[in-house]
Design brief:
The complex is a heterotrimer. Helix content of chain A is 72%, strand content 1%. By secondary structure, chain A is mostly helical. The chains are: A mainly alpha, B alpha+beta, C alpha/beta.
Chain lengths: 551, 337, 357
Amino acid sequence: MDRGVDRHRAPLTRRRVVTAGIFAIPTAFLAVFFLVPATTLVLTGLRDGGSWDLGEVGRVLGSSSTRRVAWFTLWQAAVSTVLTVVVALPAAWIIGRVQMRGRALFAAVLVVPFVLPTVVVGTAFLAVLDRGGPLAGLRQSAAAVILAHVFFNYAVIARTVGAAWAAVDPSTEEAARTLGASRWTAFLTVVLPQLRSALAGAASIVFLFTFTSFGVVKILGGPRIATIEVEIHRVTTELLDLRVAAVLSLLQLAAVIAALALYRRAGVRHGSGRLRSGQSTLHRPVGVERIVVAMTVLSAGALLGAPIASLVWRSFDNASGPGLAYYRALDSVGRGSIAFVPPTEAIRNSLGFGFAAATTALVVGGLAAIGLHRLGGRARGLADSSLMLPLGTSAVTVGLGFLIALDDPPLDLRTSPILIPAAQAIIAVPFVVRTMLPAIDSVPSRLRDAASTLGASPWRVWTNVDLRLLRRPALVAYGFAFAISLGEFGATVFIARADAPTVPVAIFRALGQPGALNIGQAMALSTILLTMTTVVMLVVDRVGDARVGGF
Amino acid sequence: MSSLSVRSVSKSFGSSVVLSGVSLDVADGSTVSLLGPSGSGKSTLLRIIAGLETLDDGSVLVDGRDMTSSPTHQRGVGVVFQDQALFPHLDVGDNVAFGLRMGGVSRADRSPRVAEVLSVVGLAGYEGRDPSTLSGGEAQRVALARALAPSPRVVLLDEPLAGLDQLLRERLLLELRSIFDSLGVTVVAVTHDPTEAGALGQQVAVLLDGHLAQIDDPGAVLSHPASAAVAGLVGHRNVADGVVRDGGVECLWGRFPAAWSEDGPVSVLVRPDGVGSSLDGTLEGIITGRIFRGGSAFAVVEGDAWPPLDVRAEPAWKVGDRVRLAVAPSSVHVMAR
Amino acid sequence: MNRSIRAFAVPLAGLLVIAACGDDDAATGDDGSSNEDVTITLVTHDSFNVSESVFEAFTADTGVNVEVRPAGDAGAVVNQAILTKDDPQGDVLFGIDNTFLSRALDEDLFLAHESPALDRVDDEVELDDEHRVTPIDTGDVCLNYDKAGLAAAGLEPPSTLDELLDPTYAGTLVIENPATSSPGLAFLLATVAEYGEDGWQGYWESLAANDIEVAAGWEEAYYGSFSGSGGSTGDRPVVVSYASSPPAEVIFAEEPLADAPTGVVADSCYRQIEFAGILSGTEHETEAQQLIDFMLSDTFQSDIPLNMFVYPVTDVDLPDEFVQYGVEADDPYLVDADTVARNRDEWIEEWTDIVLR
């Protein structure tokens, strides 16, 4: 009873009304930008030819190639997720616990792979898997795909779990140590359980990302390997066979729902860690810890740093030695044609969409997280899972569905500029929810009680207590949403107007033609993109790390 | 300050009844200690008074006005929480100023008030400190200052001294009492510790299993507990079953005169200071242990045919000595079973 | 008194303003039929490009503005057009090629328009007798080779598809997967054209045995695996690319080149023809026709090579680099659009079975 939280503070019905009100915006947003388009396209496919044809479902599901693709999709996602967690956990520890020079930069740079266009990173990655090198055997294999998945999703685990780690009271670990637990046992028995919710949340996102992986599989896996997502894309764009695409979409959806149900059944409870702010939980590494730090930084450097460094190097590596020729080309090659954009404008477009998308995602995802926090029992689990579904749905399904479903006034949004940030926000919302929900859950309800006994109305409790304590996780979420938007290409190229290309769009355009200046420009733009990302992450982290409060 | 009335409050969580028909009046400027073991419903009652919990039945009145349906933030009730619940994102000054800010007090008027309240709790000059750097006692005082700053109509303390060491507790207890006296605050203090309850409250309300078992001044609760359970709660150990018959009460310690309205089974309490060694005492036993309580020494004496008795010890007594005891009739108290 | 007048006057003035605005709207609506401020939308793929001055010239001539709306790659553009047939996203579609042509024609996407400028266009590239689509450019998909790379290996450039089967070319070729790449599909069709609908399978069995690499798309093949480009990192000297790739290598070289680093195998080319058509839901048919006619004008045609690196369909002068380093195949491979449409999926399946499994 002492942990009696805030149940039944207001009459039940009023509470329900408020909760429903909070869900209104996320629900409307997801309905318009995800649910309606996706459903429309799937139904169009199933109803192809005017009548329902469910025999196709059985035929597609029964075929051996579907089964092979489904099996590969599942196991590579599972292996990728586990491997990413294992490999990135030490980095999470560094972010959450270790005081060292360059820690902020380390945390910021981790996000870079996440935002670079797959083609660019894929090329850089291929260079690492050089034919003569020790990893040559990995070219065009499932192993290359899994390695790249670890590379791309490293930041998801490291940063999300790192933020949670920083919020774990170190005294609990110290207590365990005094009770005779070794460092390792203390981690397993005391720290890990407190990280469980953040870890499960981040891992579930990695799983969804890798389950629906597209570019990485196409570029690095070679032509013999396909995920369900690759197949959906192929039958949709190459064959325009919406019927098979619909069945595959449903299969993918079913698998994602099953995975999410499993995640819920694993009994992930939120709010185990206690939120702290103001007091640093960082310490200088000692003894064995120094070795772990060194090994983590080195391995992250090899895994993430090498491809990135080779990319940066190539942007300066001109025929006549290091120089800025490729950067200068950005402002001259193609000038006078409609596709030409000065790099400054592409950067401005990217930043503009980034702000819009991240803000949208934070509002929508934040409200959803608040709503989820207020829900209990089964309703919460279901709502929680449905918010993750956009990650499990093929982008091409949503994109094409959008064109069909939303073409009537007043909802003719097909040419509206809000489409781009909206589409990007859809992808970012699950991140925001996964980051914010455990944090909201872990705000001690006593603090809310205390504020309301001091005369704060529910709204002011929210603004003065919750919001203030949630600033750091909110910034983490915002940073990720921003990064997703910066790197996002699929939706942008699908709906962007010619006059507002983003940096990734410009990279693709440069890569579209042969010639040293073109690939050089692509490398220069990629370097610009990764610099932007690093700067944005550094700023976000700086603001988030600053002592909260003071006025 | 104001008076507080709790009228027939009932509350259940699912099928478990936490409070049933509890009524309580706290006069303007007085302090009532709400004493009960854990699970007795005392914290729930406190939360109901604060509006942090809804009630199933009954009402809460402040100055005679029904506050039952008012939301917490409009009740003007200050709460000092068991774990202090200081805002980690605000410094001490902003913590204390929080309620003033919510009440619309201007920034300029806040700081003198914060300084004033902080000096009342003995923490003058602590405004800029971070809550995480405070000791337990300091944190508790900040929590008190924060609750007092907006001049609440009623102050509620939830186990205010739990988790503090003994010396600190005693010192704070006295300080609290004098702060409340000097400010004339109306206070309800929840505690499971009878010493704390007695020291804080002009009245002690004993809550057992959701019922109000007794409400009286501290001395009376100690000397005349209303039931065996209350006696146990306030620390009495000399309690046994007895029967009232023919104007007296009979128990294994003997027969004593008793003014009890009807014959039948009762509980009997023998206050330790009414028992002494006597050559013609009827209870012969062996000293099996010694206890120090409140600066006095007590001995535990066990006999063959009666329950052990706590007795005020004589200086010469040693464990293992045989003694003969007599019970003064005035120290025998009869209670409902 | 004064006050009550004002209380009426303010809303009244507001109403008048609104009414006046309404009138205004009606007035502009009346002469909306003139060309003065019509904007038509050109739906196209994301490789579309043109000099800014070109559409400015069109607007100056006709008063019609053009808004360009890229909608993904060439396949995506057609698919989107089919899915939004009832409510199209624009007035003119450019970028449909002969591999996707029958699908689009079957769906009745386009309105017929026989441009008077068609008399300047070679009949061979006019694939629709009803003129629902108009050819605008041709782009040949050909084997490209790395001159230095082959020389270092002591090899001559291959001159036919057959020569690629020679063991000396083992490990030299990188191609694109026809299931995911448009030049990949074009190269498959070239072999179908050369060896026949029943003969290409045998060719591919032998080719696959000669250590070829299959990349997902052109970027990965050309920049990742091919060795000849100025910016590439690969080690294979032969790649499936475009006839215009050597000119592009020269034009986009970092420092002026005396010669193109790559060459084209002229007898390996498959012809891709890009068409434009008027989307059937348009409300601006006249202006759309004007745009199609304009796309066959010298102004537009001569702007094509340096912006999209394909060849014009009319007889305009080509840029020097194209003349010097490019190849216009005399007799390129071409498979009839209907045949492609009928067999495409099956061929890709077959190809996948032969080469990838």
